[in-house]
Specification:
The chain is mainly α. It has one domain. Helix content is about 85%, strand content about 0%. It contains 9 helices and no strands. The longest helix has about 35 residues. The radius of gyration is 18 Å and the shape is globular.
Length: about 230
């Protein structure tokens, strides 16, 4: 039987920080859009460089608000003295290639299944994402987004769930939340599958750089593939 104290701790240490991040992201973005007078035209201008920079800024600032929660989870994990696999250069290379390969395979599976075309919401999101200029897009999707999202979903949510319940529940729970966060069926399925892999990588190595690298490689591969092909 799950103890109420554990549920309460997860709410405080995982879901409240997640809520803080989401609200801070939206508030900062809306504030910048209002100041620049672009709030009313936001839906039509999301591919513009200025909007991309605002999104980056909002994500970084929102991430900074919950970074202390991540550090606190790391301190709590150190007390448990969990042993992790030592990271070698070969491991980092394998993680990067795995992110590239799996992202391409999933995209191919979704494409031949007709799922990409069937989701109107995904089509709208994809059109916005892949219409951003190459360099700012790579900075946003392959650097800032992986770092901030991994700190939240693996560094905070996963660690909190694992500390209170089990590794399996932590992998599944953090992956489901990561998938749902993306807001459409295609990215939800993609995010849940990839999120489970990134949580497993984090559990294996215990360093946030490992899921960040996987995440960054996957995002960069998908963006470059869609941009050039």
């Amino acid at each position: 039987m799950i103890k109420l104290t554990k549920i309460t701790d997860v709410i405080k240490s995982a879901f409240i920080p997640f809520g803080i991040y989401y609200m801070a992201n939206q508030i900062v973005l809306i504030f910048m859009l209002s100041v620049t007078g672009e709030l009313e035209n936001y839906a039509q201008m999301q591919s513009q460089l200025s909007i991309t920079i605002m999104k980056m800024t909002a994500m970084l600032m929102a991430g900074a608000t919950v970074y202390p929660y991540y550090k606190l989870e790391c301190l709590k994990r150190e007390k448990i003295k969990t042993e992790f696999k030592k990271i070698k250069n070969m491991d980092l290379t394998a993680i990067a290639f795995a992110g590239m390969f799996i992202s391409l395979v999933l995209n191919y599976v979704f494409a031949i299944s007709g799922l990409l075309e069937s989701s109107q919401r995904y089509q709208q999101v994809a059109q916005i994402q892949f219409s951003v200029d190459l360099v700012p897009a790579l900075i946003f999707y392959a650097v800032i987004s992986p770092v901030v999202e991994e700190v939240i979903f693996r560094g905070i949510v996963y660690q909190s769930l694992e500390r209170n319940f089990s590794s399996i529940l932590a992998i599944i729970g953090s992956a489901l939340l990561f998938g749902a966060f993306h807001g459409n069926i295609v990215q939800m399925l993609y995010g849940t599958f990839m999120g489970s892999i990134m949580a497993w990588i984090y559990r294996r190595y215990g360093k946030i750089i490992t899921p960040v690298l996987f995440h960054a490689a996957a995002n960069a591969t998908m963006y470059l593939w869609s941009y050039f092909f």
